[in-house]
Design goal:
alpha+beta, 3 domains, four-stranded mixed sheet, elongated
Length: about 650
């Protein structure tokens, strides 16, 4: 819950910062509202990874961008250098690639806006070349693959065209000393953090490996390629050609008109994608089309209304085209984290374009501006209301997860049941809990330790042989080790031809066996060990029931805290849908005490309705009447006490 609260704070703060950037550069309420709403919508995937540092990185970039724009507009470039140096170092220490992208963009901006024209020209030229080479160096391991070739080409195009546009917005505001201040501020924070970390017991080699060396190997460990649309290459080629023509013919009257209409067309396209007016994934729209065209929002339309306005906008553009590289090597939530600055950039650029096209006092100019603002605001409010309605509906319809630290998480009922079932079984049957891939939440929910402190998600590729050997030794030493396997993720990796193996992976497969499955999860114990699955039920029909049994029988193994006076068969919908109610009026209930291996631990208690139950019991419901058709995969047996409180649950085995 705390992780989600932090992610929510970062999510909202990022959207507010983008609205602040837009307001500061336009003084337009409609543009600021558009940036606020679309950025919030753009970053909704933060709900899926609340513990990931991506939300922290995003809010640091957003707040620094907002504050940096303010300092540029005020002409306080020394404080700008301090701020960006500290932020760049912080980003690099959290995630090295994000920090490098931020630092590279800021250095190029400082050089391109140097007060000495000679340094400025050379800085823009060399800086643009460096930004173009960065994607090649970053993606060198996969450049033989088409998806990486497309990504590298788009990144080069984005950086190159943005550098041209930034050079056109150049203002002689930076000095050489500010570049040294930038470097010094970053080094100062790095030294302070490194010393504090070393003082807590981390070795210098361990710090270097964790911050720099280890991440360099991650692309080879795991990657997830973006899906490129067929129109990506033609749009990128057209973008390069148009940028070149606008640069060469920058003094001609047609250039501002073409750029203005290009801005409005791109902004409308992005807004239509987010409003689902056109059937295009929003992340694909920004990754494949929006960023390669983003130079349009920076290229000047005419004389600057403020000497530093264009320079501030150019800095945001350079940050965007470098943060764009976050989507390599994993094009998941990283797409939204790396492209959110496109939204305030587009909002500012479209506002400028509309003002330029209606700069003369034609009678239709003001009504057009009002209509455009109303259309944008209406679309954004509709998008926000749709997202809010979806979230509120899911929250109201779902029941709390009720696991330690995640008590009020609201998930789909089948998923929540699976997580609770696995946690109960691990708590009862285990003394050490390991997972494949790494699922540390189960350790927090159950209180069970991991084999060692070397915890990782894709441990089969992230942990070295010595670390894997230590985990094998800890599992061998444990009396009752249990393993939770997320089969869905493993199947996904196998389908993607991702190599799965290694000494620990092979050890788990050879020495542990599956006891039961729930949704996409499996519960494993050491081979040869017998355990009874808890919170599991089975339905016996006449064709499988023995002679003398009722037409229908339900067996359920539960650890009920209070006497059971009723039960319901419920469909695993959101919310749960009652299907059949069981009570003393239509079913008999007996209870048999069980040992952990599933053998009987005492005599069977007949007529167990409303009576105290053994700590672990097999409940047998014999139904006299017929049952409606039941799909075990989508059904749960819920037990209630005399006050109507839930005292237990059991999902059905198929």
């Amino acid at each position: 819950m705390a992780g989600r609260e932090i992610a929510l704070f970062n999510w909202v703060a990022t959207a507010l910062a983008c609205a602040g950037i837009t307001w500061r550069l336009t003084r337009s309420r409609a543009a600021a509202l558009a940036a606020l709403g679309v950025v919030y919508y753009h970053l909704w995937s933060m709900i899926n990874e609340p513990g990931h540092p991506g939300s922290l990185l995003t809010v640091i970039v957003a707040l620094t961008a907002w504050a940096g724009v303010e300092l540029i507009l005020r002409g306080q470039l020394t404080w700008f250098a301090v701020l960006t140096g500290v932020s760049g170092a912080a980003l690099a220490l959290i995630k090295i690639n994000v920090g490098v992208f931020f630092i590279a963009a800021t250095v190029v901006w400082l050089l391109a806006n140097h007060a000495q024209e000679k340094i400025s020209r050379r800085g823009a030229l060399l800086g643009g070349a460096a930004l173009g080479l960065l994607p090649v160096a970053l993606m060198q391991h996969f450049l033989a693959l088409r998806w990486a070739q497309v990504f590298a080409a788009l990144a080069i195009i984005s950086a190159g065209t943005m550098t041209l546009a930034a050079a056109r917005r150049r203002q002689p505001v930076a000095q050489t000393r500010q570049l040294f201040v930038f470097i010094g501020a970053g080094l100062a924070l790095t030294v302070v953090v490194a010393l504090a970390t070393l003082a807590r017991g981390t070795s210098l080699l361990g710090l270097l490996d964790g911050v720099l060396l280890g991440p360099l190997h991650h692309p080879g460990v795991y990657h997830f390629a973006p899906l490129w649309h067929d129109g990506t290459a033609p749009v990128a080629a057209a973008s390069v050609l148009l940028a070149f023509l606008c640069w060469r013919r920058r003094g001609q009257a047609w250039v501002p008109l073409v750029v203005s209409w290009g801005r409005l067309a791109t902004g409308t396209f992005l807004l239509a994608a987010y409003a689902e007016i056109i059937p295009l994934n929003t992340l694909a729209a920004t990754l494949g089309f929006g960023v390669p065209l983003s130079w349009l929002f920076v290229f000047p339309l005419g004389p600057e209304r403020s000497p530093r306005h264009g320079a501030a906008l150019a800095w945001i553009g350079l940050l965007l085209t470098e943060q764009y590289l976050q989507a390599y090597p994993i094009a998941g939530s990283q797409i939204s984290w790396g492209t959110f600055l496109l939204m305030p950039l587009a909002a500012v650029g479209c506002r400028e374009a509309l003002a330029h096209l209606t700069r003369h006092d034609q009678p239709w100019a003001k009504p057009l501006r009002v209509a455009a603002a109303a259309g944008v605001c209406g679309t954004v409010l509709f998008m926000t209301a749709t997202l809010a309605r979806l979230g509120w509906t899911r929250y109201q319809a779902s029941e709390p997860l009720n696991l330690p630290g995640a008590e009020d998480l609201r998930l789909l009922e089948n998923h929540a049941l699976a997580l609770r079932t696995l946690s109960v079984n691990a708590s009862v049957h285990g003394d050490v809990l390991f997972s494949l891939p790494g699922l540390y939440s189960f350790n927090q929910w159950t209180g069970l330790p991991t084999p060692t402190l070397a915890n990782a998600t894709h441990w089969f590729s992230l942990l070295n042989p010595a670390q894997q050997a230590a985990i094998i030794a800890a599992l061998d030493h444990a009396q009752r080790p249990v393993i939770i396997v997320q089969r869905g993720v493993l199947d996904f990796l196998r389908d993607g031809k991702f190599p799965l193996g290694g000494p620990l992976f092979d050890y788990v497969r050879q020495h542990f066996t599956r006891v039961f499955a729930s949704e996409t999860y499996e519960f494993w114990v050491r081979q040869g060990r017998a355990v009874v699955p808890l919170n599991r039920a089975e339905l016996l029909e006449p064709r499988t029931a023995g002679a003398g049994l009722a037409p229908f029988r339900i067996n359920a193994v539960v650890a009920a805290a209070r006497p059971v006076v009723s039960a319901e068969l419920m469909l695993l919908t959101t919310p749960l849908t009652p299907r059949v109610r069981l009570s003393a009026a239509n079913a008999t209930l007996s209870a048999t005490a069980l040992r952990l291996d599933g053998t009987a631990g005492g005599a069977t208690l007949a007529n167990a309705w409303g009576r105290p139950l053994p700590p672990l019991a097999r409940l047998t419901f014999d139904l006299a009447g017929a049952l409606p058709p039941i799909d075990p995969h989508f059904t749960v047996l819920v037990l209630f006490d005399a006050q109507g409180r839930k005292v237990g649950e059991a999902g059905f085995t198929e």
